[in-house]
Automatic annotation (TrEMBL):
Organism encoding this protein: Actinocatenispora rupis
Keyword set, alphabetical order: Oxidoreductase
GO process terms (BP): fatty acid beta-oxidation
GO molecular function terms noted in the UniProt entry: 3-hydroxybutyryl-CoA dehydrogenase activity; NAD+ binding
Start and end residues of each 3-hydroxyacyl-CoA dehydrogenase C-terminal domain: 187-283
Short name of any one Pfam family annotated for the protein: 3HCDH
Binding site for CoA: S48, K55, S119
Record-stated family: Belongs to the 3-hydroxyacyl-CoA dehydrogenase family.
InterPro entries linked: 3-OHacyl-CoA_DH, 3-OHacyl-CoA_DH_CS, 3-OHacyl-CoA_DH_NAD-bd, 3HC_DH_C, 6-PGluconate_DH-like_C_sf, 6PGD_dom2, NAD(P)-bd_dom_sf
Domain 3-hydroxyacyl-CoA dehydrogenase NAD binding: 5-184
Chain positions of site Important for catalytic activity: H140
Name of this chain's protein: 3-hydroxybutyryl-CoA dehydrogenase
Annotated pathway: Lipid metabolism; butanoate metabolism
Length: 284
């Protein structure tokens, strides 16, 4: 199936998607708004490939071949003109994603599948700005993409069976295990579950019921989680989790998706988890 892929956004998610597709034999064009963003993305891909080589999980020849299948540009039209599949991986804000998809609708060939890497925004909302909602699908990858096996494939209200089949085949070809979400609900399945768990976990800590450390230990040893929910929040980014939860609340008005005050204060204070050095835990 390997063909031409365009990835819109060269951040952590976009560069990871570009890398695994290039490793699987796809010709990949990665696009971002400026050269600095592209340089960071390509440097990340090179470093990730080199780590796989150092750990003997990939040969140096295969790593170089994958890197050789990667092209970059700041021109959206150039990136998507010949693409069979386009994966958008820009900031998790509905207005930004809609702006991108409005342009993709204008610039992509008629047969292209248009995928969004959103973790919480309804696919139908993003597809609504296009004249081809049947071609729009959710492909929710997990970070870091080269290491995480899962893709959550989400059907929008008008997504066609053919689009779903193409997106599933693509995801599996680049080495991912696919779970299919048949209804376009806010937060889909995985984000909805982690947000609900983190909000309740935060309330328990906020109310003095249990410490963050003991709560995470309970989830690891009691439920077999690889990481507790609060350590996961620090890894993902406290602000990212809050933003995703607020997106779900905006769509559902379900009280369990109301972020606790302590979580909002953490974000206001810049305690965003590992990336800031402080979250539920200290990383100084």
């Amino acid at each position: 199936m390997a063909g031409r892929l365009a990835v819109i956004g060269a951040g952590l998610m976009g560069s990871g998607i570009a890398q695994v597709a290039a490793q699987a034999g796809w010709q990949v064009t990665m696009r971002d708004v400026d050269d600095a963003a592209i340089a960071r993305g390509t440097a990340g891909i090179r470093a990730s490939l080199d780590k796989f080589v150092a750990k003997q999980k990939l040969s140096a020849e295969d790593a170089d071949a994958a890197y050789g299948r990667l092209a970059t540009t700041t021109d959206l039209g150039d990136a998507v003109a010949e693409a069979d599949i386009v994966v958008e991986a820009v900031f998790e804000q509905v207005e930004i994603k809609q702006r991108v998809f409005s342009e993709l609708d204008r610039l992509c060939k008629d047969t292209a599948v248009l995928a969004t890497n959103t973790s919480a925004i309804p696919i139908t909302t993003i597809a609504s700005v296009t004249n081809r909602p049947e071609s729009v699908v959710g492909t929710h990858f997990f970070s870091p993409v080269p290491m995480m096996a899962l893709v959550e494939l989400v059907r929008g209200y008008q997504t066609s069976d053919a689009t779903m089949a193409t997106a599933k085949a693509f995801s599996e070809e680049i080495g991912k295990t696919v779970v299919v979400v048949n209804k376009d609900i806010a937060g889909f399945v995985t984000t909805r579950l982690i947000c609900a768990l983190v909000m309740e976990a935060t309330r328990l800590v906020e109310n003095g019921v249990i410490s963050a450390e003991d709560l995470d230990t309970a989830c690891r040893l009691g439920f077999g989680h690889a990481m507790g929910p609060l350590a996961t929040t620090d890894l993902t980014g406290v602000d990212v989790l809050v933003h995703a939860t607020e997106n779900i609340w905006a769509d559902t008005k379900d009280g369990k998706f109301t972020p606790p005050e302590s979580l909002l204060r953490m974000v206001a204070a810049g305690h965003l988890g590992r990336k800031s050095g402080q979250g539920f835990y200290s990383y100084e």
